[in-house]
Structures are given as structure tokens and as C-alpha cells.
């Protein structure tokens, strides 16, 4: 399904190894996907799966988790599904702190439908719909998740495969809303439009620009030059939605 040089296969491998490490049973796990390149990942898993409409994966996943809190619910979204078309659902899933794990593959454009600009396309970058440069500022997925209330936020890349598996494993075991953003190559569209073709050029770019959070300093590595931190960015223990709901339900039953 995926183009040569796409990072989706590496991300899926990291996710499946995390499932195996944690001994997740397929009958107790639900993978929810939306539309797009990464949304096709549910074709390659043997867990319960739900393929939903564009931008609505988190809404469906919220319903599943609210109905049966014992299930391991994992949501696979691209940058369009998560924070462009699905931005409102993303904010409220984080605000509710619903116990879901969102794996967001951010290739900075709509890769499946021709490489159009998305909400995460960096300012001034070229896409099929911003051929002279993107006039808009991009959304920082991790910062949005943090300020909206997510308990766990991390970032990784397909170049840093073992580190990516580690943060995915942490996210899957964290109570509350967990987000792992994966900055991923799209050599077919984004890379070609921005002089990062062939695919190897995009992986070299990831190697250069992705800085472990322990070493990241915005003065030394300016965001304006494309540098970004990877690793665990947020880790807190606010009560999740189902726990708070049961408290209120118990209060209502006593009244």
C-alpha cells in the first residue's frame, strides 16, 4: 500500500512490537483508523479494527472506550485526521483525558490525495496547493495535546525506530489520553516538492533535525531552522474520563 521510503511501515512495526511486549490480546484490543495513508494500517492488524470517516476516528474511539473501559483502544491518524479535519475532536479527547492512545503520523501534507497543504505543513513549504509557499503557520501537535490536557505526549521519527517503540509502549500503558506524534517522510509529495527527494534525503533530514529532548535547546537548535525535540515531552497523572465518570455515577446512585 505505502510508497517506497514512507515511514508508515516502520511505525506499524514499532506499534506491533509494543503490542507483543505488553502481551496485548487481540480480542481485548481495538485499532481505530480514519482516512489517509496511515489509515490503511488497520488492513495489517489482527486485532478488532474500526475504519471510520475522515477526521472522526477519535469520536468513534471515545464511544468505544466510554462503553467498555477494559478495552485497549488505539487510534491511528494522520495529520489531516488528527488536527486538521479532526482538530475539534482532538482537542476534546485531550480535554476529557479519555484513556486512548493516539499514534499520529505527521507527514506534513495530505499524502494520499495529491500532497495538498494540511494544518501541520510548515510555514513557507511547498505543496500541490501552496506552490509558492505556505502562508499559514503550522500546528504543533504535541503542544496542542499538552495544553488541551493530555496525560502523555511524545514525539518520534521512523529514523529513530527503537526510541519510537519505547515511547509507544509508554503511551499504551499510560492511563488517560496519550499522544505519540511521528514526524514521517512523504517522499512522493512533500519530499519531492521541497527538494528532499529521494527518500534517503528525508531520512537524513530527520537524523539532522530531530534532537533528543534531553539535549534540545531552542537557542542552539532554532525551530525556525526546522529542529524539533523527540522523546517523552509530557508525563502527568490527571484522572482519566472513565474514572471521573464512575465517581459522578456513584454520587448519583447514592442520592
From TrEMBL:
GO terms for biological process: cellular respiration. GO terms for molecular function: oxidoreductase activity, acting on the aldehyde or oxo group of donors, iron-sulfur protein as acceptor; thiamine pyrophosphate binding. InterPro entries: 2-oxoacid:Fd_oxidoreductase (IPR051457), THDP-binding (IPR029061), TPP_enzyme_TPP-bd (IPR011766). Residues 43-182 form the Thiamine pyrophosphate enzyme TPP-binding domain. The keyword Oxidoreductase applies. Keywords: Oxidoreductase. This is 2-oxoacid:ferredoxin oxidoreductase subunit beta. It comes from Desulfofundulus salinus.
Amino acid at each position: 500500500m505505502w510508497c517506497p521510503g514512507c515511514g508508515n511501515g516502520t511505525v506499524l512495526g514499532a506499534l506491533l512490537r509494543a503490542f507483543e511486549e505488553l502481551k496485548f490480546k487481540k480480542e481485548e484490543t481495538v485499532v481505530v483508523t480514519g482516512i489517509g495513508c496511515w489509515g490503511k494500517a488497520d488492513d495489517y492488524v489482527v486485532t478488532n479494527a474500526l475504519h471510520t470517516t475522515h477526521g472522526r476516528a477519535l469520536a468513534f474511539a471515545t464511544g468505544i472506550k466510554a462503553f467498555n473501559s477494559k478495552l485497549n483502544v488505539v487510534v491511528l491518524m494522520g495529520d489531516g485526521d488528527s488536527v486538521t479535519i479532526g482538530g475539534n475532536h482532538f482537542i476534546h479527547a485531550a480535554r476529557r483525558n479519555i484513556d486512548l492512545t493516539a499514534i499520529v503520523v505527521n507527514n506534513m501534507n495530505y499524502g494520499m490525495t495529491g500532497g495538498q497543504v494540511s494544518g501541520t505543513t510548515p510555514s513557507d513549504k511547498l505543496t500541490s496547493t501552496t506552490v509558492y509557499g505556505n502562508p499559514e503557520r503550522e500546528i504543533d501537535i504535541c503542544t496542542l495535546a499538552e495544553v488541551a490536557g493530555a496525560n502523555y505526549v511524545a514525539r518520534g521519527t521512523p529514523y529513530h525506530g527503537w526510541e519510537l517503540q519505547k515511547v509507544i509502549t509508554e503511551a499504551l500503558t499510560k492511563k488517560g489520553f496519550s499522544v505519540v506524534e511521528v514526524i514521517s517522510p512523504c517522499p512522493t509529495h512533500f519530499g519531492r516538492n521541497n527538494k528532499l527527494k529521494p527518500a534517503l534525503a528525508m531520512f537524513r533530514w530527520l537524523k539532522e533535525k530531530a534532537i533528543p529532548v534531553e539535549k534540545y535547546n531552542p537557542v542552539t537548535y532554532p525551530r525556525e531552522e526546522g529542529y524539533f525535540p523527540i522523546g517523552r515531552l509530557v508525563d502527568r497523572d490527571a484522572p482519566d474520563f472513565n474514572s471521573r465518570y464512575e465517581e459522578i455515577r456513584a454520587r448519583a446512585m447514592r442520592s
